[in-house]
Design a protein that fits this description.
- The chain is of the alpha/beta class.
- The protein has three domains: 134 residues, Rossmann fold; 158 residues, 3-Layer(aba) Sandwich (Rossmann fold); 46 residues, no CATH class.
- The protein is built from 17 helices and eleven strands.
- A five-stranded parallel beta sheet has the order 2-1-7-8-9. A four-stranded parallel beta sheet has the order 4-3-5-6, sandwiched between helices. A two-stranded antiparallel sheet has the order 10-11.
- Helix 1 crosses helix 2.
- The longest helix is centred in the middle third of the chain and has 17 residues.
- The chain is globular, with a radius of gyration of 21 Å.
- Bound molecules: iron/sulfur cluster.
- Iron/sulfur cluster (SF4) binds next to helix 16.
- Iron/sulfur cluster binds next to helix 16.
Length: 370
């Protein structure tokens, strides 16, 4: 703790003292966001919290919750000779359905590229748009994965493509919305949470008001927090305060960035281009109205509509427990493959691939985990 005080200052020390003074029943809080997961692991927060306060990871890593079936779909598109497939880097190593051949490596976009497919890493959807302009003879498909933080950029790219009549640009969209997943989680009978640490950046877009259902309908204490360790501690202290007072409310512990109603312009772009659809989440199954589908007006830029693909049912990697990790039911170390058959160099599941994945965070900062 002295080290944390030296690294993060007096407020962190005071907040830790406050948390350590909790003498009530054991509490389990979920940090919903992958950035929180990585920040907590890096700072060793799990080790610093008292034994009565447990922090579990949730489904807030977009690559981790993207289901195997989507990876299979992306691989099928990458195999088409006319397609140039573009993606954020994390998706390159997420395994698709395991091959039938024993001991063969699981397919990934990275392996597809090594095998000759035209698969490229871009840093934004606009990078893919640029490629579509530069390569008029190719069909450029961007993998649109992410939450409310990414969705405005996905929508803006589709709007730009429509304005420019860029017929060779489309997007395979698997964007998801956080409130739908939270509703499914807090309604789940096998998961007992005492509070939610809500993601700062998603909340910048959504605003505090988007979470009121958590308190009003589900009576779950919740706090929006930034990503510095001291900001997470502020959120945790707010959660403990709510539990102590028997309250369920949405505390905004990130008021410099998050407003009551969020970024209405960003949400307007999302609403213009996308509509709510049922969505498949790795580990959580299909959640009604928790995904974003491309509206019919922009069907020309929807890769799912443009390219007919017939796929066998997806198959989860054998032994991988990403689903249980993403629902906060187990710690990554409880997966039998953790750090043995599944490592960041040879990941078996998506949670070990992403820079925001719980398994990757635990692997990289194992010495600090409790
Ligand atoms: S350690 Fe690997 S195989 Fe196990 S849950 Fe995590 S990603 Fe899946």
């Amino acid at each position: 703790m002295a080290e944390l005080g030296a690294r993060f200052g007096r407020e962190a020390r005071r907040l830790l003292d406050e948390l350590r003074a909790w003498e009530g029943r054991p509490l389990t809080f979920m940090e919903v966001c992958g950035t929180h997961t990585m920040s907590a692991a890096r700072a060793g927060l799990h080790q610093l919290l008292p034994p009565t306060i447990r922090l579990v990871s949730g489904p807030g890593c977009p690559v981790c919750v993207t289901p195997v079936g989507y990876v299979d779909h992306a691989l099928a598109l990458a195999a088409r000779p006319e397609v140039t497939l573009c993606s954020f880097g994390d998706m390159m190593r997420v395994p698709g359905s395991p091959p039938r051949t024993p001991r063969a490596a699981p397919p990934t976009l990275g392996l597809a590229r090594a095998g000759g497919a035209d698969v490229r890493v871009v840093f934004s959807p606009l990078g893919a748009l640029e490629l579509a302009r530069d390569l008029p003879g190719r069909q450029v498909v961007f993998l649109g994965v992410g939450f409310e933080t990414t969705a405005p950029a996905l929508g803006a790219a589709i709007l730009r493509a429509a304005e420019e009549r860029l017929d060779n640009f489309s997007m395979l969209v698997a964007a998801k919305t956080i409130p739908g997943a939270l509703a499914a989680l807090v309604g789940s009978p096998d998961l007992r949470l005492d509070g939610l640490l809500l993601p700062g950046h998603v909340s910048v877009v959504l605003g505090r008001a988007a979470y009121l259902f958590l308190a009003d309908r589900h009576r779950v204490p919740s706090a929006i927090a930034g990503f510095e360790p001291v900001e997470m501690l502020r959120g945790l202290a707010a959660l403990v305060g709510q539990v102590r007072r028997g309250e369920a409310r949405i505390d905004n512990c990130y008021p410099g960035a998050v407003t009551e109603h969020g970024n209405e312009r960003a949400r307007a772009v999302i609403e213009r281009v996308f509509e709510p659809v049922d969505s498949e989440w790795r580990g959580l199954g299909s959640i009604p109205q928790s995904g974003l589908g491309v509206r019919a007006a922009y069907a020309a830029h929807d890769a799912a509509r443009r390219f007919a693909v017939s796929l066998p049912p997806p198959v989860e990697p054998a032994g991988c427990r990403c689903g249980d990790v993403l629902r906060g039911l187990i710690d990554p170390g409880e997966c039998g493959l953790f750090a043995t058959e599944c490592t960041p160099d040879q990941p078996r599941g998506a949670c070990m691939v992403s820079s925001e994945g719980s398994c990757a965070a635990r692997y990289h900062y194992r010495a600090e985990a409790r």
